[in-house]
Amino acid sequence: MIRSTTAGLCLSALLLAAPQARAQQKAEVMHWWTSAGESAAVRVFADQFNKAGGQWVDMAIAGGANARTAAINAMVGGTPPTASQFNTGKQFDDLVENNLLVNLDSVEKQQNWAKIMPPAIIDAVTRDGHAYAVPVNIHGQNWLFTSNAALAKAGAAMPTNFTDIFVALDKLKAAGVVPLAFSGQKTWERGLFNTVLAGQGGGDMFVSFWGKRDVAMVKGPAFRAVADTFRKLHGYIDAGAPGRNWNDATALVIQGKAGMQVMGDWAKGEFSAAGQTPDKDYGCTVLGAASPAYLMGGDVFVFPKQKDAAQTKTQMLLASVLLDPATQIAFAQKKGSIPVRLDLDTSSLDACARKASAWLANPKTQVPANELLSPPALTGAIEDLVSQFWNDPSMTTDTFIARVSSTLAQTF
Amino acid sequence: MTPSGRKPRHLTTARVGLYGFLLISALFFLAPLYVMLVTSLKSMPEIRLGNILSLPQHPNFDAWFSAWSSACTGLNCNGIRVGFWNSVRILVPSVIVSIGVGAVTGYCLSFWRPRGAGVLFAMLLIAAFIPYQVFIYPLVRIFSTAGLNNSLAGIVIVHAIFGLPTMTLLFRNHFATLPIELFKAARVDGAGFWRIFWQIMLPMAVPILVVAVILQVTGIWNDFILGLVFAGRDNLPMTVQLNNVVNSTMGERTYNVDMAATLLTALVPLVVYFGSGRWFVRGIAAGAVKG
Amino acid sequence: MPMAGIRKQRIGSRIPAQLALLPAVLVALVVYVGATTWTVWISMTSSRMLPNSVFVGLRQYESLAENDRWSASVSNIVLFGVLFLAAALIVGFVLAVLIDQQVRAESLLRSVFLYPFSMSFIVTGLAWRWLLDPTLGIEKLLHDIGFAGAHFDWMVRPERVIYTLVLAAVWHASGLVMAIMLAGLRGVDPEIWKAAKIDGLPVWRTYISVIMPMLTGSFATAGVLLATSVVRLYDLVVAMSNGGPGISSEVPAKFVMDHLFERGNVGMATAAATSMLVTVAAVIAPWLYWQNHRKGAAT
Fold this sequence. Notes:
- The structure holds three protein chains of three kinds.
- Chain A contains 21 helices and 15 strands.
- The two termini of chain A are 44 Å apart.
- Chain A is α/β, with parallel strands linked by helices.
- In chain A, the strands form four sheets. Chain A has a five-stranded mixed β-sheet, sandwiched between helices. A four-stranded mixed β-sheet of chain A has the order 14-7-12-15, sandwiched between helices.
- Chain B has helices at 13-40, 44-48, 62-70, 84-112, 117-127, 136-146, 152-176, 180-188, 193-204, 206-221, 225-230, 238-246, 255-287.
- Chain B has two domains: 13-60, no CATH class; 81-287, MetI-like fold (Orthogonal Bundle), CATH 1.10.3720.
- The chains are: A alpha/beta, B mainly alpha, C mainly alpha.
């Protein structure tokens, strides 16, 4: 392939031109991938980088907020890492504004991002026409995982949209199974809300809510229907939901004690750890009206400006390794995400990932996740309201809509 | 050894009631430890079943070995032992410096009272109530100009800074309960500032010193965010690896390893608590203060 | 504590004292006063993830006042604080008194009550959450052994979850209070006991009327330490309920932390921190003033 040949030429040039520079191609990389599965995935990046002449120095910190805090303080304190992980979206806006990041236009041109990546992803890493981050994967945030055993026991069919899902949920309830395994933490309450917003309201409504912050739309009947569906789902969770970790909810589905769970594709890691395979033991799908509305989130790496010019070369090397086709596939296999490049052969990935790749070939299914559309401050404020609405029966839909409208109108 | 002058009684009703109450209290206090222990001895499939109070079917220490030496904490899968000596290297100087400065400051504020002592004490007391994370950003900027970022000296100073309010409070309050005649007598004898501190006041502060050690060892050993930001990659404390084992946002959770890792991390403060016991007895002799 | 006499000493003797105070003064001025001033300044800007200098006046405070989660946090911490302080002080004192009765295995018992303090909440909070989860813990146990109608689901009820936090916090801190009280108790003169016995006072009466007043210092120390941990309460809430269900167990320190880091809203976070600071100062300053002007106070 042209891209890897170019990359290969660049790498050879670097290696031949400055053999002693090889020892200096040390890259301190900050990220939050620390579980066993995530570790195997980041090892793909590290091994490929090391093979290309670099030296990966790992600085892993669990908990996205912790890692980002450490990275920002390191940048501000004068000892920036070579590369740092962020989520695709607006998390690193302030870093760009404060001129702390390296411009990646050369990498973008060289690898022709416009041809291989979804436009929404490219937009998410571009500020003022320049690229400041390298996207490395796409995580789907709004999957529906189902237990085949539980569905069979209840005689329920796999749902396809937000109307027939209630048929399945009722059957599960009647069969004595927990219909919807839920983890009552604010992030996942927002996740469920986003799933209904995209799945019932559609991709356009989703962008209109988080991106355009269209208050008129929020006050309209379609959004109200979404809020009502969201609230209706509350009737199908069990008493232990508040505070539960998402892994424990997945465990319920794994054991057939619950029928379904709404979660991102990282949940596949739990299923694999328990020895289950997609389609055989558990089902996976994304709900939508006409076609699935796939919420694309994911991870990127930013490259803080360094004092030493030689480090910039290392950064470009790392950036190109991350998007190398073989690296992308190997990473996706281990991580459970799908490659951010849509031009690859995904037949070696698991069944759910293959479904996602097929859907994303159609641009209509590509819906940017809320991190790509709204700054963390706005996301947080809405998250609090969604959590209140979910947990407090005394909050009416009218109040919810009113509060959401006034929040969307604020400056963030 | 009769600290309160009463002889030990035989088994009366009151005694039985006393032991009964203590036993029930002990059960309450031990409940979470029980859950953590049995979970750490189970395998993940058994944990997923959700019977948190049941004894393990096939108890094994796999989770413990994994937590110590093979759990993944990022690219490297070497468990939490990686940071053990870093934590020790941070702990010892930090405890000594923070308690030392706090003791001297408390001594100063209670006996010597230079001008502005009241204001200083008020500032420190109010500062103790602020969530210290708010100070991280300004401190990073200050330390960066002083060249202290990412160094052992930096993290020791940070612990001393954040320990100062509570340590000063502890010692000042304790010294305030000692009779002023003791101090006056020493001054009349011609003893200076440091002489009085080392030879008279510090020996009388042994019980509160034990409390201070408990507080600081626990706080500094279990600290995560300050060590992460100020210590530098080469000095990262064990709590960073512990956090990596336990706190994955989107990765699989291995609860047995999490519990084992937490219990292992708690061993150091626990050893200190256990060892501090004899000082509680010893403190009596030093605490008899009838002038 | 009458100190007037000391001041009349020779000038030279004051210098070691002032020198010894230098580290504390430096820290107090540079770090605490300096950083606090900076915090107050930033609370009047529109800072998001990194601090900036765009002045917006009191806009952050207005948002704060209208913020449901902040009002819930404030009322939660007041309720939590009162309950936790009372319970931890009482339980700690009672445990210290009981242990002081020359029980066998005193060392072991002391460790049983003190060990919770040694562990960070990340995982102990999870253990408590499991115990209080109606589908996993105590309620399930009660159902399994036959009490089918028993309920202990405070953890998942918005109006009750705060009490579970108090429970776990008392479990965590009583051991420390016990240690402080024991230090105080062990410093009580044996003569006092003999005198009380001669006077014919029963043991429990001696504790309440004679010993407790002598322990005011210990109570004050323990009280202030507990109070600081109340205002800074964060790890426990995150580990147990994460502020939920909904916002029913949110607390101010978690509000500050979430907005400082995850939500990239430093302006709002510093406004919240400043509000906390002003409240604390408003409570402490009068108390200290009153303390300073009391003659012969034991504290």
